[in-house]
Each structure stands twice: as structure tokens, then as C-alpha cells.
Amino acid sequence: MQVIFHGDDFGLTSGVNEGVIQAFQNGVLASTSIIANGQAVNEAIGLAHAHPDLDVGIHLVLSDEKSLLKKSSLSCSQLSDGRFPSRQRLLLNLLKRQTTVQQAEKEWRAQIEKILSANIPLSHLDSHQHVHLYPYLFSMTVRLGIEYNIPFIRSRILDPILFINNRKRFIDYMILKCWIAGYISNVRIRPLKSIPSIGFLHAGGKLNQNILFSILKTLDEKSYPAVEVMLHPGTGDPYTHSCYRHWCYNWKNDLDLSVNPLTVQRLKDIGVRPVSHAQLHKATQRRQKGL
């Protein structure tokens, strides 16, 4: 089985950026997704150029953070301080048509094009709080992925129901799982590809060695060829905590898990090879050409 260890939120803050780079340089992390409207996105762009082997995707944002576009472009979906609404409010706005797909598409095009214009190739796309899976948005996201030649899209979550320690997170997981099974799985995404993702139930530093390897063992026994492990590595710096205390994340825990030599050794012991989205895409291209 091949495993993509992935760091979300690259560009959010300098502490998150440093965590992603440490996890890449000293650990198992191979891929990350960048927030084009993050506070530290320019620093993240510089780091991506300095580490060209780090696989980069786009982390689309339409909740909580600030828009790249002028306020008037998304006036129905933004709050008075220029930030997008919460994901719950965003969903209501979509269902009430107070936020339109056309508005969201303009914003997401701006986010994608900002990173591409910085000469950073994008191998995959996902989103902050999985909002690209929302009604009306997913088909548009697939279309953008195809148009901008981004090979992978995050559209499947696969957490085995093990070690449940957060009832609210579990309820969110089951709702999302049912939505994916009932709608997302029926949307044609070709030529895009999707790798099943794990880590939703233990997001924000709640994953540990025992949980990780229990999940990987379960999936390996079910013969999954590849999975993505969603992580949020960071240094645990005071600034990130002060800005995002309400997330209740332990960024340092995900960083420590990524760089722990025991993680590397246990992966070798069970025959798991860390890869990136870009590496899987290149392997697919070689197979298609018969090489």
C-alpha cells in the first residue's frame, strides 16, 4: 500500500509553514495544500520554490478566512470584516442561493491562479473544512480541476470507525460520509483522480501512532492500493494558537508524529511506502504510455 502523508493549511501562518517544511524535510510528509489567501501565503510560496520536491496542491477557502477578491464580488457570502462566513452559514447561504456558484467560482479561480502565477504547479485540490464537497460546489470544483489540469481531487473519506473520542466530530463524519455516498460518488470526476483520505475523525493533532497504524493495517487488509493521511503540522507557536484557538488544534502533535523515527520504521516494517500526489500521477502517466 502507498500512503500520502499530507499537510493541510500551508500558508495559514508562519508556524504552520515551518511545521510543514520540518515534516517534509525530516519526516514522512510528501504533499501539502496551500491557502492562497492565508496570512503567510507569500512565505509559503517562497518555501515551495526553495523545496521543489515538496508536492503542492490548492486548499480552496470559502469559509472563515478573507477573500482574495474585493468585498463587492462576494458581498452576499462575506461578513462585514471581509471574512467569509462559517461553514455552517456558507451551507445555508448556498441552499438559499444567497451565495451562488458563480460567486464561489470567481473566488476559487482567483485562488488557483494566484498560486499558478507564482510558478507553482498544482497536483491536487481540496478545501478548508471540505466545503468543496457542498451542494452546487463539487461539480464546479471538478470542472476547475479539469480546466487547470490539476490531476487529483479530495472526494472520499475512509476513516475506519476506531477510537472515537469526539461525538460531534463523529456526527459530522457520518453526515459527510452519507453525503459522499449519496451524491459525491455519483458525480463524474474523470479525468481527475481521487485518493481515499483518512484523518477526518482525528484532525488537528488527535492522531497518534497506535491509531494511525491500526487504521493503515485495517485498510491494507482490505487491499486499498493508496490512501491519503490528512495532517495539520505546525510548530505550536503562540501566534497560531492565538489566531485559531477556537479550532482546538494541536499542530505540534501532527508535526511530532510526522518526524518521529518510529513512524518511519513502522511504515517500513509493514511495507508502506510514502509517496506524493505528483508521484502517483507520474506513475499513472507512465502506465498509460506503456513504459
Explain what the structure shows:
By secondary structure, this protein is α/β, with parallel strands linked by helices. The protein has one domain (2-288): Glycoside hydrolase/deacetylase (TIM Barrel, Alpha-Beta Barrel), CATH 3.20.20.370. The protein has helices at 14-26, 41-50, 87-95, 101-117, 137-147, 167-182, 209-221, 238-243, 251-259, 261-269, 277-288, and strands at 2-10, 31-34, 55-60, 124-127, 152-153, 197-198, 226-231, 273-274. Strands 1, 2, 3, 4, 5, 6, 7 and 8 form an 8-stranded parallel sheet that branches. α1 packs parallel to α9 (251-259). The longest helix has 17 residues, at 101-117. The radius of gyration is 18 Å and the shape is globular. It starts with a strand and ends with a helix.
Q: What are the SSEs and their pairings?
A:
Layout: E1 2-10, H1 14-26, E2 31-34, H2 41-50, E3 55-60, H3 87-95, H4 101-117, E4 124-127, H5 137-147, E5 152-153, H6 167-182, E6 197-198, H7 209-221, E7 226-231, H8 238-243, H9 251-259, H10 261-269, E8 273-274, H11 277-288
Parallel strand pairs: 1-2, 1-7, 1-8, 2-3, 3-4, 4-5, 6-7
